Structures are given as C-alpha cells and as structure tokens.
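Internal ticket #5521
Category: modeling
Description: The requester needs a full-assembly model to guide mutagenesis choices. All entity lines are attached below as received. Residue total reported by intake: 600.
Assigned to: D.W.
Attached entities:
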Amino acid sequence: MSPLVLPLPGNEALAAKLGATIRGDVGELTVRRFPDGESYVRLRSSPQGRAVVVVASMDRPDPKFIPLLLVLETARELGARSVGLVSPYLCYMRQDRRFQEGEAISARVFPRLIARSLDWLVTVDPHLHRITDLSEVYPVPARVVHAAPVVAAWIAKEVQRPLLIGPDSESEQWVVDVARHAGAPFVILEKVRRGDRDVEISVPDVTRWREHTPVLVDDIISTGRTMVETLGHVRRAGMRAAVCVGVHGLFAPRALEELRAAGAATLVTCDSVTHTTNEIDLSAALAAATLEMLGPTKPA
Amino acid sequence: MSPLVLPLPGNEALAAKLGATIRGDVGELTVRRFPDGESYVRLRSSPQGRAVVVVASMDRPDPKFIPLLLVLETARELGARSVGLVSPYLCYMRQDRRFQEGEAISARVFPRLIARSLDWLVTVDPHLHRITDLSEVYPVPARVVHAAPVVAAWIAKEVQRPLLIGPDSESEQWVVDVARHAGAPFVILEKVRRGDRDVEISVPDVTRWREHTPVLVDDIISTGRTMVETLGHVRRAGMRAAVCVGVHGLFAPRALEELRAAGAATLVTCDSVTHTTNEIDLSAALAAATLEMLGPTKPA
C-alpha cells in the first residue's frame, strides 16, 4: 500500500507536494482544541497496515507537542506498519549544554521524549553546534536534508554577482557549503551574543566586494537581530542593497518589521517554516530523504 | 534530606502550603520562553540525592507539557533520588474511548507519555468515567485525593440547610459522597450532551426542597454551560439563590461571566486550579497523599 501522509495544521501545502513526489496519499487529520484547552485528534484516514508519514514543522513547539504525540501514538495503535516524522524545522536543538548549573539540556531531553513514538525522522539542517550529528541525540534512524544546494541554486539563479556573508562563526560551515554550490565568494563575520536579543557583530574589510551583491545567509531567522546588525554593517561599508536568505524563518514578534526597517528589501526563506517570505521549495529534497527512510532498508 | 518542592509557574502558593506541611524546602525554578517560542528551564536548587516533588496543575495543558517534562527529566539527570508529581488538576482524563473511528484516546496516551518521567503521582478527583481507577492508565504508583470531605466541610460550615444538586449522572457518585459527608440531602439531574458547548438538562421535582439552599456541585467547571442550565432550572423552580461549587475551576473564556449572569452569586472552587474563585484549600489533603508517596513504601 502507498504511504499515508498526515499533515498537522499548517503543514498542508508542504505535505501535498511531498505526497505527490513520494506517490503517497495525503490523509485527513482533525486537530482542534476543546474549550478547556485540551487537544482533540482524529485520523480520518485509516493507517492500518500502512507506512505513515506525519508532516509537522516544530517552530513554536510547545503547544504542538501533545497534538503531535497523539497523532503518532494513535497511528501506531490503529495498526500503522511504521510511523515516521518529517519535521522540516526541528525544535529544541539550540540548548545543547548547561551554560549555567541546573539548566535543562533540552537538545538532549526533547529527542528522547519524541523518539519513543517514532520509527524514523527526516529534518532540514538542524541547528547542530556542539552536537555534531543528529544520531548523537536521536535514538532512531534520521536523515538530515541539506538546504545548501537548494539555497545555492536559488542564489545562482536570482542574484547577480553574489557575495555570501555569514553572520558568525557558527554559520561558517553552512555558508561555505552554500558558496561552494553557488560558485560564489564569501566572508564570515564574528558575533558576540550577550542575551536572547542582544547581539554585536564585527565585520572584516569588504571594500574589494563593492561591485557584488551581498547575500546574508543564516540557518535560522528568529529575532532577526543578527541579520539586522549585519545589514547595518553592510550598508555602512557602502555595499549594494543586500539580499537576505534564511533556511528556517521563525520570525519572533517584530522581527520581520525590524528587518524591513534595516533595509532587507529582498528577504526569502525556505518553506520549512510556513511564512510569507517562503520562496525556496524544499519538498523535492524532503521527498528524497523520506523515500530513503521508507525504502527496503527501513526498520520493519 | 528533606524533600525538594519545585512549583511550576502559577503553582507557587499551593507549593508553599504543601512544602510547609510535608517539611520540605520549596526550591527555585526558572521557566521562561525564548523569543523563538522554545522553553528555557533551570533548577536553581540542587535535586542531588533528594526526593523531588514537582507541583504542576495541568489545566490548559499543551503549552505546559514540555516545560514540565524538562523539569522532571533534568531533576533526574541531576541526581534526584526520586521524582514525583503533584498535579492537583490532571489533564486528558476526559476522552477515554473512541467515540468515532480514528480518534485519539488521549486518556490512555497521555498517561503513558508522562509516566515515563515519574516515580509517582498525586492528583485530586480525576475525571474518571469509563476508566474506574487511575492505575488502569497510569503505570506508576498514584494517589487520588478526594475533595468530597473537604468540599463537604466547607458546605456544612458556610451554607444553611443545603440541598446538593448534581447536574448529571456522571456526577452522581461524587455528589452522593459530598452529601453524605455534609449530612445533607441531594438530587441528581439528567444531562444530554450534544456537543462541546451544547448541553440540555432535565430536572426532577424539587418543590419539597423550597426551604433549602440549592448547592450545585460538579467536579469540573469548564464552559460552565452545565451549571448555567442548572441555575436556570433551579431559579424557575422557585428555589432560593444557589451556591455553586466546583472542584476544578477551568473556566473557559466567557464561562465566569455567563455563570454570574445566570445568577451564580456565590461561586467557589478548590485551589486545584488557581483562580479568583478559590475558597476551598486542598493543600492539607495533598500533603497527606504526598507524604504517603514519600514514605518508606515508595520506590527506591
């Protein structure tokens, strides 16, 4: 039987593209809240004997977690042959150690909690830093889709003489990868983080790149502060109007307005988190990874 | 070492009373949200070698679940001798079977998900219907605190010539118990539920009770529709102004206003869910149950 693709609310568009590519059926799922704030979940398509592919991007994860677990667990109860999760944005990858005594290391706790309900996982560029591979924290088979080639293809097609700019050393590996795929030069800035919303940037000399279009790339746009700072430096350096590219556009409150105000005339994101700035389609790459997980080598 | 009591935000008042009664230390816990919507958790008091008592009422549970799990799991990682949960209102007890094909039976799934992080559980009058005992769904030791004696004591002290009125057959067992403890007569109405917010009530003849004060008691006040309907019948039957008592006051949006408008002049709840109507103090009963769980018979 063909795989059953079940999108959580907000993931319908991506699930439709993914479903078409993997030749799956996109099933119907009801998720709503009772007046007392609890979630109601109903699978309107039977998962009996089928490989189930749940599609749920986990930006702003806390209110989504119980509904997601109810879907995963109910699919299994109702006889799914396997239950996998395509989560283009995977949450809780950022706190990967105790910076202060007593802190929860959510990047290690969360994977344990969700993996119990999963046979496999597909995601896009998780925010790996001190954790170098998803298998260090996820005890189930996992495939990471790299957005770099897709982002690079978009840049190569849409931007004239791009100069890639990575906002900090954390982004370096990723920006280098995009630059290589796009055949473009790059520079990496240095970021000093003082708090959730307090960030300062230092910029190397970019005068030799004045004829290029600066392309600011980052894996996550959350508060947008890093990109706002970088836009300021690029403008003060006398460079052309910048293009901003984020893989995961989380956009905390006011972030989009502040980015526009800072001069982000062109601001695009991948469709891993549904947003008006989505321009870069990851569905083909996600479908390829999903087919790998559903293939003959998957766990029975 | 004395037990370490850790209240999640909103549970500080109950935790203070509980902590004093069980001779525990109320510890400090930081729970906040990052700008991207993820939760940050830090235990500012060390759980090393101690029995940890987390206090977290689970009304409106979905956004609270990940922070709670981060607290429970981090307490264990940091060397807690045992990790228990006092959850005066326990969520997801209401959907206890598939009314329609494909529905998630959250009353069976949720206990599995949270019990993995617990050594024991204490709660107050869970909404048991088809599930007759908490041990059917919770695979860890659990104590249920019965609010009936405490509610009955409040009624006996505060209400002259009470007539207890249960809104439906689901409430019967509970109302009978309160009536017995209060030494008061009671009647049980019949409820027909047509949807989340659509409820109709039939009332037996109450003319012989005209000299009594009707006391409407229910385990959960959520939309308040049941109690609003019942208040209407009581008023039309020519009875005195009613006193409304709920164990768990969830109060969905507009519920309180609608209850006031329907004539609920006196409306009180237990402190299992923090609310302005809290009048009935369950902390002594919760402390007794907690001490039982922490006693020599608890799991090592």
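Resolution: model delivered.
Comment from assignee: Chain B is about 30% helix and 25% strand.
Ticket closed.
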